[in-house]
Q: What sequence folds into this?
């Protein structure tokens, strides 16, 4: 299907055979993901614009704020995040099973699942535009679409289990744990939510309990494990070092397994649901600091302060600096290190945000939007970008077409999401404090958050520019364009190629 | 590492228990007492199927043609209005509107919340389709958590029961705009229309002009047009009027019905201007305003008996208003109830037939015959009578078991009374 550059290593090694067998599904998920990312950036920018200029295009029914907001969020999560997570899960699971398939049964599972999934996302987005959306966060797509999702998710799960079972080593890598756990939790959380809020929803507030539970599980038990699997797989690879503490990584996994699924009902604090559900939500939400800190310590220690001994390579400090430079100069390393640094910030803010004291003021404000953006864009997407920058050249056997687009992508994304997130945090606290002051009327509340929202527009614009760069790069890559300068060797794409570049 | 793998699945399975735990919800007591739809629903049948309150099908057709629709089709719709419980095979309707309604929640408590069908249900899907829930919540948090009560968004906290009919539940998770749990009590329909057509200046709510039609006034202005003050913000230019399309009408019907202005045993109104301490459930000390001079034990016993399935509540309703459409007279404010105990006791013991007049209004044939209370003791009957004489604003002396016993032995078994037969007893004290 895709013409690849001739590379002797490509078919002669086991790794090369694994990569080439995943070319079609990997490319399918990545390109659709990049497209949905672009789309969500466009619609999201428009929805933010609607907040500061509400009369914009208000005679067009499908461009009303309530619909574009839902479309932007769903295109970002179900469109971009899940698509790309599938690509990464498939690839990491295959790589770590260390066995190229004799008979490629996976194509029959994965490629149809991917095609159907993207058709369903399209239908779901059209459904929301049409006015058939459901009122639950991350479950806005019509119920029929959700049932279809279930089939696709299950196929991916079956594939992951097959790949796990046919692994070469008896022991398993931490990344395999995260991938398999993530897919499992996704299938499960989604099926429960779909059962409760399906075409014939259960009576009463159990619907919102299920919805809150699902939206939290989606971020913490699906996107987070995939991002962590990617980081745990690629960071040591780039650094040429093992993970700092093998057992701490498993401790982090089990903590996440315990608490990630349970914290979702914290968003119902004070709401019309039994108090034990709220209490469970904020206790487990707060206890997310356990997996957050253990995982973050492990990842960041590996990156910034690895255990090294003086060897013939030179002094410890020199090796460390040299290795870190290599990492930082590769797009993969740069994105993943950024995501790994954002992760503890996101996790700790989430844990603090679960507490009733902060919920009392910030519960219904832009603060929650900011946290979501920080998690899905700052943490997950950053690592996913890194993963794609590493994966795609290996699947296709050629180098990225443009290093400049990568640099722009990184700069725009990082500056953009930091601006947008900080402004939304500002907007959220301004709004929350205005609501808390009962002398301020409804228009006063709107006025309080107007300025920060206007500032956050700049951030969303930058994010969108970064997404355009990414889309162009991915499309050029898929079309076979490849820059001559970067095509020096079959290795990682480097922003500033150095002699150390051939370490992977 | 392989030895850990079984634990992996074990833990996955354990976390699977959680979703099932929350299903305990489904078996809560108030969800179990479901009874089929009654006449009460049929009463607003017409209104439900037309989406607005109209005097006649012609009136409805005129409105439809005014807003650009097909009047012949509209007449057909108005004529073919059927109760929704006959649309059982329509899964879509079934999913959106429950076929069963809650008659009574907890013994002795009124049957709140009311099931909202028809125009309000249509309006709810309009609300959902526009994505209103992205900016508005519909939940009032308790007084000592958040500022909802202080901002005047409700008189009490919202509880799970308020949402029992909502499919889907629209409690929302963002407050870019104010909470709407009680918007029906705060704004009247005309203000709601104005707000949706053109939100106030400075608000970041989008306008919904596509739900309205601006048209030239021909002859008289339409009676459905939004009433604007002169030179008001959003008012159309001279000679034009803004008429809501059916979707806007439904939406406003739905919003007008959003009011949690009833008390529930688990959520009483907060006392006005008093600091609130502790959680809501400690607030059971709420005392009815009426009837302090009667022993509260008798009143609560009477209330329980009144609300027994098949007894008084069946026809006279929990609020004592009766059902005018079915010729069930009200008990609240009725001179029959607060008047002579001789008459009241006789009516309850033997029933009453024939045309009567209650609170100045004629009631045709009242088919009241004693049913399950035939077997009740004198104590029970006296308690019920005392209760209805001291509830819903009624005030009258209590009825003693002795009186009931005396009258029971006097009248024996006989058919229902008529107005004329009861005349001699009316002036007995």
A:
């Amino acid at each position: 299907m895709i013409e690849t550059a001739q590379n002797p290593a490509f078919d002669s090694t086991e790794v090369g055979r694994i990569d080439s067998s995943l070319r079609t599904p990997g490319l399918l998920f990545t390109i659709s993901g990049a497209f949905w990312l672009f789309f969500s950036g466009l619609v999201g920018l428009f929805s933010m614009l609607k907040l500061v200029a509400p009369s914009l295009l208000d005679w067009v029914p499908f461009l009303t704020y309530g619909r574009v907001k839902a479309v932007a969020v769903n295109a970002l999560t179900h469109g971009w995040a899940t698509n790309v997570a599938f690509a990464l899960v498939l690839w990491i699971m295959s790589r770590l099973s260390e066995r190229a398939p004799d008979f490629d049964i996976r194509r029959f599972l994965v490629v149809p699942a991917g095609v159907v999934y993207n058709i369903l996302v399209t239908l779901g987005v059209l459904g929301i535009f049409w006015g058939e959306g459901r009122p639950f966060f991350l479950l806005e797509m019509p119920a029929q679409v959700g049932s279809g999702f279930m089939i696709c998710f299950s196929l991916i799960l079956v594939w992951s289990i097959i790949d796990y079972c046919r692994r070469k080593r008896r022991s398993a890598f931490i990344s395999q744990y995260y991938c398999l756990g993530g897919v499992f939790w996704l299938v499960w959380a989604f099926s429960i939510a779909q059962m409760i809020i399906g075409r014939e929803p259960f009576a009463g507030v159990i619907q919102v309990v299920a919805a809150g539970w699902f939206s939290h599980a989606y971020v913490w038990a699906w996107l987070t494990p995939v991002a962590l699997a990617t980081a745990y797989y690629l960071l040591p690879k780039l650094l040429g070092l093992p993970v700092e503490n093998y057992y701490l990584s498993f401790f982090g996994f089990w903590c996440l397994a315990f608490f990630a699924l349970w914290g979702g009902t914290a968003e119902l604090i004070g709401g019309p649901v039994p108090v034990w559900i709220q209490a469970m939500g904020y206790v487990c939400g707060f206890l997310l600091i356990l997996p957050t800190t253990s995982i973050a310590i492990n990842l960041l220690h590996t990156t910034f302060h690895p255990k090294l001994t003086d060897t013939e390579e030179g002094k410890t400090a020199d090796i460390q600096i040299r290795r870190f430079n290599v990492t930082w100069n590769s797009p993969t390393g740069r994105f993943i290190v950024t995501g790994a640094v954002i992760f503890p910030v996101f996790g700790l803010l989430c844990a603090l945000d679960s507490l009733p004291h902060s919920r009392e003021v910030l519960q219904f404000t832009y603060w929650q939007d900011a946290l979501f953006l920080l998690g899905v864009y700052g943490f997950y997407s950053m690592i996913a970008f890194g993963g794609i920058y590493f994966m795609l050249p290996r699947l296709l056997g050629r180098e990225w077409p443009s290093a400049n687009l990568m640099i722009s992508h990184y700069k725009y994304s990082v500056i953009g999401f930091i601006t947008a997130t900080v402004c939304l945090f500002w907007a959220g606290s301004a709004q929350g404090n205005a609501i808390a002051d009962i002398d301020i009327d409804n228009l006063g509340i709107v006025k309080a958050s107007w300025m920060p929202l206007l500032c956050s527009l700049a951030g969303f614009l930058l994010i969108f520019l970064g997404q355009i760069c990414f889309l162009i790069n991915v499309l050029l890559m898929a079309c076979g364009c490849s820059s001559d300068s970067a095509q020096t060797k079959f290795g990682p794409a480097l922003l500033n190629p150095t002699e150390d570049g051939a370490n992977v | 590492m392989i030895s850990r793998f079984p634990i992996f699945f074990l833990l996955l399975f354990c976390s699977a228990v959680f979703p099932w735990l929350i299903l305990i919800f489904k078996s809560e007591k108030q969800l179990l007492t479901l009874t089929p739809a009654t006449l009460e629903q049929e009463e607003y049948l017409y209104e439900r199927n037309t989406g607005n309150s109209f005097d006649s099908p012609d009136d409805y057709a005129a409105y439809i043609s005014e807003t650009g629709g097909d009047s012949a089709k509209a007449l057909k719709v108005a004529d073919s209005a059927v109760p929704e419980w006959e649309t059982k095979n329509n899964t879509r309707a079934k999913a959106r509107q429950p076929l069963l309604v809650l008659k009574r929640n907890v013994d002795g408590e009124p049957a709140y919340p009311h099931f909202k069908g028809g125009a309000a249900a249509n309006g709810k899907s309009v609300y959902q389709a526009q994505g209103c829930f992205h900016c508005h919540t519909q939940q009032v948090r308790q007084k000592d958590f958040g500022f909802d009560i202080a901002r005047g968004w409700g008189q009490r906290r919202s509880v799970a029961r308020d949402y029992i009919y909502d499919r889907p539940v629209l409690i929302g998770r963002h407050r870019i705009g104010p909470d709407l749990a009680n918007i029906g009590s705060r704004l009247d329909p005309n203000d709601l229309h104005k707000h949706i057509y053109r939100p106030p200046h400075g608000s970041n709510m989008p306008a919904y002009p596509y739900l309205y039609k601006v048209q030239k006034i021909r002859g008289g202005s339409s009676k459905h047009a939004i009433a604007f003050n002169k030179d008001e913000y959003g008012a159309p230019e001279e000679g034009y009027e803004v008429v809501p399309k059916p979707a806007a009408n439904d939406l406003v019907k739905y919003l007008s019905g959003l009011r949690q202005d009833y008390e529930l045993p688990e959520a009483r109104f907060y006392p006005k201007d008093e600091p609130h301490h502790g959680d809501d459930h400690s607030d059971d000390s709420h005392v009815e305003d009426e009837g302090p001079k009667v022993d509260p034990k008798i009143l609560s016993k009477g209330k329980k008996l009144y609300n027994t399935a098949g007894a008084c509540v069946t026809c006279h309703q929990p609020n004592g208003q009766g059902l005018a459409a079915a010729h069930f007279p009200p008990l609240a404010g009725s001179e029959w109830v607060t008047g002579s105990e001789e008459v009241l006791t006789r009516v309850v013991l033997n029933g009453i037939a024939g045309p009567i007049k209650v609170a100045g209004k004629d009631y045709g044939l009242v088919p009241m015959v004693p049913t399950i209370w035939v077997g009740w003791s004198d104590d029970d009957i006296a308690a019920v009578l005392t209760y209805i004489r001291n509830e819903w604003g009624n005030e009258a002396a209590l009825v003693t078991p002795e009186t009931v016993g005396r009258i029971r032995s006097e009248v024996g078994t006989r058919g229902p009374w008529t107005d004329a037969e009861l005349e001699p007893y009316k002036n007995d004290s």
Observations:
- The longest helix of chain A spans residues 206-239.
- Chain A is about 75% helix and 0% strand.
- Chain A has one domain: 21-503.
- The CA atoms of residues 106 and 162 of chain A lie 9 Å apart.
